[in-house]
Amino acid sequence: MTRNRRRRILFCDHTVSMSGGEIALLNLVRHLDRTRFDPVAVLFAHGPLKDRLREAGVPVHEVLLDRRVSDVRKDALGGAGIARSMLAPSALPFVLGLRRLVRRTGADIVHTNSLKSDILGGVAARLAGRPLIWHIRDRIADDYLPPTAARLVRLLCRVVPQRIIANSAATLETLALPASMTCGPRRRAFVVHDGMEVTQPPSAPAPGPPRIGLVGRIAPWKGQHVFLDAAAAVRRSFAEARFVIVGTTMFGEEAYERRVRAQCTALGLDDVVEFTGFVEDVSSVYASLTVLVHASTVPEPFGQVVLEGMMAARPVVATRGGGVVEIVEDGTTGMLVPMSDASAMAEAILKLLREPELAGDMAQRGRERAVAHFDIRDTARNVEAVYDSLLAAE
Q: pTM score, two decimals?
């Protein structure tokens, strides 16, 4: 092996739908320096991420994980649930097969991208004797994971990966790592914000009724029910307003969607609220919006949708907490409201609708902040610096 050869990075992910972490992974591999790094991926299921990675020039392998393990939701990992899912009889042959793939690909670094891949891919990497990076994209907190699972992940963070990348300072804080891991000469944990490709923002929305949108997976913690309560309040004061809920359910959350649709009917909003389902080209949604709303009821690990809205030069109303406060400067590049507070959310939306000059200025400043601080090229260079530190140590 020569000192200047390209280093092979094997990315592991158990989730193959195009949710926030997978979009961030795809953005990252598209912008890695291919003269220095050679990305390869292994996925634990069939899904759209495979084709998107291949379109980006990344070879993709599949080592299929038992659905009884891969489909376990984060909120079901408490108590014996985490042992049943991660220590199921099918887990051992899966890990051994993954170890063989790690060796066969000649990976210089294994870079895991999701909680289940952190644990299962992490074990495989250590068994194969390869350096390991955990990319933590979930808040390891009791309001996001069951306490047992959160404690276990925090413990494993200290002993399994050689390096940790957190997608926000808020995420890193939930790991409760000792200071020796987060600063100083022996530092092992780094914050690297997710980024986006900088493109031309869309033009102003077409003339017509103002459109207020919520984009993201339909799930209780994403707050579609709060958004609808806010929409009802906005409509009472701004009758021409229209609302759009973009996204679909994952992980067996169909019952919540039914409740949200019933709530919409009960509030008398069926004539002004559109449920679009999954939209492949979400940029077209942002282009149509007057205001983008983020309504999560627990702190977000990062806030990809908020960043997308700012990059599209749309004024944003978002809930205050987690990584969102690292993206939005309240009152300058967006408006932050308390979580689960539909009244405050409605007031912020109404302020932007009533003061279009303020909304335009805020959208422009949001766009400028997104370009300056969340360019995907900077994200890639920062991740590559973590690779360099690990390879130097090895």
A: 0.92
